[in-house]
Amino acid sequence: MSLRRIAVSRFHFPDGRVLYNQIVELDGDVYMRHYPLTDELPFTEWRGGDYFLPAAKRSR
Hints:
By secondary structure, the chain is an all-beta fold. It has strands at 3-12, 18-27, 30-36, 44-46, 50-52.
């Protein structure tokens, strides 16, 4: 397991929804979960910009 967190300005879902200022947790390149960015978190990479969630990359 190689869990990592990235912070993004805009998190895009395949259905067109957009959430702003989100933390995205990934296991390798597989999306695990997301939640609002409310505080600085240690070991979080600030990417800024947009993150597009590919439908095929969702965990089950």
